[in-house]
Amino acid sequence: MVGQSRGHVPHGTRFTWAEFKNAFRAHHIPAGVIRRKLTEFLALKQSNNSVMQYAQAFNTLSQYAGYHVDTDEKKQACLRQGLSSKLQDRLAMIKFDTFSELVNGAIIQEDAHLAHKAEKKRKAPAAGSSSSAPQRFHLVQSGPQRAPFQHQPVLGLQQQQWGYRPPQYTPPQGDSQASCSSAR
């Protein structure tokens, strides 16, 4: 009688881990919380998080996912679905034996991608260029200005200096169709 008053189970009864877990949850975690956490799990995406951050949130919420992650294969499929599209693409043709190997592979791919981006940024030309075309320098004349095609007298030549000037940004011209339609 004493053993039965503590949980209505005969003294000495043995439970499997799954039975204990289900009984514990039913008693301590409301069904509404489990449904809410399952919804969060099913909507979980990597977004701007690192793979580590995403995997941690995935593992935390997967406790409430039940049959969605009851095998390693299902767990891998759910994790892959939430990864960024770039990582999904890079990992698409790779089969991992375990969930942990998948997470590790995703971290390695993310690190390689970030290293590639950093290298590209390091090699990129300095900011200020409005296009990807190489910069050209313009030949400019300093000294007295003269009208085009004006002949200078042979006697009394003035000294002129020539130098290089970097290109100046010029905004793109307006749409030619827009200017045509406004003229009508």
What would your notes on this structure say?
The chain has 8 helices and 2 strands; from the N terminus they run αααααααββα. The protein is mainly alpha-helical. The protein has a domain at 2-107. A two-stranded antiparallel sheet has the order 1-2. Mean pLDDT is 79; it is low at 1-6 and 175-184.
What's the topology here?
Elements: H1 2-5, H2 17-28, H3 31-43, H4 51-62, H5 72-82, H6 85-91, H7 99-123, E1 138-142, E2 161-165, H8 176-183
Antiparallel strand pairs: 1-2
Briefly characterize the structure.
With 184 residues, this protein is mainly alpha-helical.
Strand order of the largest sheet: 1-2
In one word, what is the shape?
Answer: elongated
User: Largest beta sheet, briefly?
Assistant: 2 strands, antiparallel
Strand content: 5-15%
Our count of helices gives 8
H and E order: HHHHHHHEEH
Helical amount: 40-55%
N-end to C-end Cα span = 99 Å
Structural class: mainly alpha
Q: In angstroms, what is the radius of gyration?
A: 35 Å
The overall strand count is 2
- Which whole number gives the mean pLDDT? 79
Residue ranges: pLDDT <50 for 5 or more in a row?
Answer: 1-6, 175-184
